[in-house]
Write a structure and sequence with these properties.
homodimer; 355 residues; alpha/beta; TIM Barrel; 7-stranded parallel beta sheet; 15 helices; 11 strands; globular
Amino acid sequence: MTRPRNDNFLRALLKEPTDHTPVWLMRQAGRYLPEYCETRKRAGSFLNLCKNPALACEVTLQPLARYDLDAAILFSDILTVPDAMGLGLYFAEGEGPKFERPLTEEWAIRDLTAPDPFDHLRYVMDGVSEIRRALAGSVPLIGFSGSPWTLACYMVEGGSSDDYRKVKTMLYDRPDLMHRILSVTADAVVAYLNAQIDSGAQAVMIFDSWGGALSAAAYREFSLAYMQKIVAGLKKEKDGERVPSIVFTKGGGLWIEAIADTGCDAVGLDWTIDIGEARRRVGDRVALQGNLDPNVLFASPEKVAAEAKKVLDSYGSGDTGHVFNLGHGISQFTPPEHVTTLVDTVHAYSRELRR
Amino acid sequence: MTRPRNDNFLRALLKEPTDHTPVWLMRQAGRYLPEYCETRKRAGSFLNLCKNPALACEVTLQPLARYDLDAAILFSDILTVPDAMGLGLYFAEGEGPKFERPLTEEWAIRDLTAPDPFDHLRYVMDGVSEIRRALAGSVPLIGFSGSPWTLACYMVEGGSSDDYRKVKTMLYDRPDLMHRILSVTADAVVAYLNAQIDSGAQAVMIFDSWGGALSAAAYREFSLAYMQKIVAGLKKEKDGERVPSIVFTKGGGLWIEAIADTGCDAVGLDWTIDIGEARRRVGDRVALQGNLDPNVLFASPEKVAAEAKKVLDSYGSGDTGHVFNLGHGISQFTPPEHVTTLVDTVHAYSRELRR
């Protein structure tokens, strides 16, 4: 048995009783922390930081030293997978991620293959092992990947996009090519997440950051179907322990029943849906993760505490099945001391609710 | 009686029978049309174009000359209202709208007053009258405004925003100031839309472009409540004819029942919700407007036709209550001839469905 000493996060995902509502924050290791900025400077670039297991481990642990968080999440980037597929990831200063060789030609799409995670993504697996050792059984480690649709957006657009023009033109005009990209990418993600599990990840999360840009029908065909395939292909156990999975589609509030039906253990919620309503809609099938508006953290500590309590109240008095999180990644402009208030409020108030 | 010769748009909004599904497109007078670009060039700037009634009339009519559209919409910008409130609207080349004097100080918020639309926004009313004369009873003219929340986003941020950090900080930290801005702006919008109705607008639409950035609770308190106030304050009749209203929150698919409860005649839908599901959820209370993904227009004409038919099929065989539109403004990169396919398909196929 390899459960960490604080296993509240895993227990909540598996709907086992917990004495408090566990909390972690998307992008908890990030630019709002001065110690992160210092390490990143030392690394020379964001990509060096991702590709150096020792430094990735260092920044993964930083928020845990500051805050009483119930889980660590691997520090990495969702675009490591298309990078390993040969697209050439780079970050132009102040511009966000870009690919040297975006998928524009049919032959390149036909040639796409899923990379061996222990070969081209060895640095991620080394990072997972090193973080796991450094955590020394304290809290669980979350592994993650981007969803095939979200990765395809970057792979076809060549970077971030305001309007998804290129990728949606392909989706509507050449669904055969789109499905080819998604199918290869889904195979790559299954292998990637299973390699993370083998290397020590105790739960995994799929980030579908751009699924919410799709129509209801296109979401099911081009995003959800591939996430379902991934969930079905994931290792369900490691060392005799269940490895729970979380599926998060930003802007997916309309489709949470369908997301719950993928077979995942938990559905991640952005801040636009009321978590109590979400719970009524999905019933007992899955746990829920979320969903405070990250912008709340710009308000005063009193307001931060009040808004956190509203989320806990809305989820209701059940003593499990809820992992507290933001509805999206924490902003680089967040005052670090407001996060202390948030984490401590979630712990104290959820204990109070259980009494 | 002043109904236009083609009154299908008004009939659909009022749930009277129509012989085809009427169609118009958000931002139908825009940069994808070479004739628009030519007029804009002549105007010297986007703002000159908005502020010159003759030129605004000219571009309003351009898409109607090309396509068999069932309605015209006033060419203007949602930010004319805060401009008239003294914030100093300008457009930096290639950067989107900005305000010279964004609302950052408490005294400026306390000093805010609703402008007289026949004074500071006279050019809009002159445009409405001129367009109405030029339409000569052919199709109805739609007037519009931004929602108070959407206008407040620009007024507080000082321009477009990725993260709504400033406006949401105010919302959570100083809800009293936020409500002050929204309340004055709602009064301004009521006066502005009623002045448009008096000047000749035969239907009005409220664009809540950024309501979808709010949490469920914040949406009700800071966006929906003010749109409800506006709908309640709108003139319901002009010259013995009903003046229907449409409320559109982009990203508001989770909240359409509540939007329908504002008292509006129709709910605008973005492309993320299935229109058939939306119809089942709101029942017969309101008409629906939408909701093709604007990116469909980048695909081949065959695909455009196929996707348009899917929307009509999903709405169902009812012969009224649906105004076909995109789920968001048409992209500047749209091939103009694809719009011909779209409009003609909606007309032909919806007639076929009625047989």
